[in-house]
Amino acid sequence: MSIKLRLTVMNFLQFFVWGAWLISLGGYMIVTLGFTGGEVGSVYATMGIASLFMPGLLGIVADRWLNAEKVYGLCHLIGAGLLIWATTVKDYKTLYLIMLLNAMVYMPTIALANTVSYKVLEQKGLDVITNFPPIRVWGTVGFIAAMWMVDFAGWTKSPLQLYISAGSALFLGFYAFTMPACPPAAATGTKRSFVSALGLDAFVLLKRRQTLVFFIFAMLLGAALQITNAFGGAFLDDFKTLYPDSFGVAHPNLLLSISQISETLFILSIPFFLRRFGIKTVMLISIFAWVLRFGLFAVGNPGSGLGLLVLSMIIYGMAFDFFNISGSLYVDREADSSIRASAQGLFMIMTNGLGAFFGGTASGWVVDHFTANGIKDWRSIWFTFAAYALLLGIAFPLMFTYKHVRSEGTPAAAHH
After folding, report:
1. How far is CA 246 from CA 183, 379, 416, in A?
2. Residue of 132, 112, 30 lying closest to 70 (CA atoms)
3. Rounded to an integer, what distance in angstroms lies between the CA atom of residue 208 and that of residue 214?
4. Of the candidates 274, 232, 285, which has an alpha carbon nearest to the alpha carbon of residue 254?
5. Which among 366, 283, 305 is positioned nearest to 36, based on CA atoms?
């Protein structure tokens, strides 16, 4: 098997493990286990807590002591055991603890999968920039495949989704040990400091007002990322009495997976938008795409309003990619070359760490606030989230007055 194919399998499974439960676990917790919105939100917020420190800590381990592919494999083997344990649990406190521990071993594997891919490609003399994107796109395909598998099997409200995730994590854990060795950077004489690995030396960027404003908005917008992951399935399930035979109720994961399919398409459009409009405008487009994403959920339904829900799924690709990728490019441009890796780490901490934690927690409160006698007022819930995104969209261009300068070779930074 060629090394590119082996890395493709690894990336496919990396996100298959996540896709098996990320979109449908919220519905399982609300519908099957009877959890409140606040409890569901806090379980999803565990990924934010884990993202604050675990990728950095395990990055240090892989940098200094243990081969990256072994750290990666061990994480997935531990995660598989935790997910199997989770299938037996019905109470909130225990499930919260298990999913927190699972997040602590899963979230670092996203960066570790990239690290292993980069190192192996370099070892084989292959250009990373040319060869990695076609490999990584199979991760999104894996995520979608897992969603579809759980949906077609009728397991979106069942603990069996966790078994699917655990089985694939178990296989991936052992598969990782067969990958080419990726020795610690310390063995080659280059090693990052503890402060650098945690992204802390990038805090110097926060001394500049513009960059500080950017990172604050990155955190506030990061709060929006997990909301539909946590509550999309439960939202569609609540239409089962009104539209029992509708596509969205019968196949919630299939409908929600349009979002991930859209992601893969919008990634391809980013170079055009960045060249034409500049980073600030592209990020503003992203914020207003979030307004539409939530607003269309508020007015759509799986019956006559199915088209509105599908449009919301398509818009998600723009909302997610335009923010994540253009934001990452802005950070890369603003950071000194010596702290670029740390700056990207700080961007991840603000979005996937603090943002996801606050977003998961606050969205749970919003859902509970609009729940009376077990009935959720989804229209008010989604309009609240849309209003939040709208406020960000109004404030961002007023506070973020970054002037883009077109320079040769970096058309992405241009601003008109």
Report:
1. 52, 19, 46
2. 112
3. 10
4. 232
5. 366
Structure token pair of residue 322: 């335009």
How far is the C-alpha of 288 from the C-alpha of 67, rounded, in Å?
A: 43
Neighbours of 141 (CB within 10 A): 18
pLDDT tens, residue by residue, 144-201: 999 999 999 999 899 999 999 999 999 999 999 999 988 886 555 555 666 666 656 7
For residues 364 and 168, what is the distance between their CA atoms, to the nearest angstrom?
A: 29
**Residue with token string 């908005």:** 217
Round to whole Å and give the CA distance between 271 and 291: 23
For the chain, list the domains and their CATH numbers. 1-182 (1.20.1250.20), 199-416 (1.20.1250.20)
CA 411 to CA 407: how far, in whole Å? Answer: 7
Angle between helices 252-277 and 306-334 (to 10 degrees): 40
pTM of structure: 0.81
Amino acid letter, 97: L
The string of DSSP letters for 320-378 reads HHHHHHHHHHHHHHHS-GGGHHHHHHHHHIIIIIIIHHHHHHHHHHHHHHTEETTEE-H
Which residue is associated with the tokens 């030396």?
201
User: Are 38 and 234 contacting, i.e. CB atoms less than 8 angstroms apart?
Assistant: no
What are 284-296's pLDDT values in tens digits?
999 999 999 999 9
If 0-12 CB within 10 Å is exposed, 13-18 middle and 19+ buried, where does residue 379 land? middle
Residues forming a β-bridge with 375: 372
Answer yes or no: are the C-beta atoms of 260 and 144 closer than 8 Å. yes
415 φ, ψ (degrees, to nearest 5): -145, 135
Q: Are 105 and 86 in contact (CB under 8 A)?
A: no
Lowest mean pLDDT across 145-159, 320-334, 386-400:
320-334
78 closest CA partner among 51, 50, 109: 109
Q: Which neighbouring-strand residues pair with 371?
A: 376
Distance (Å, whole) CA 47 – CA 142: 20
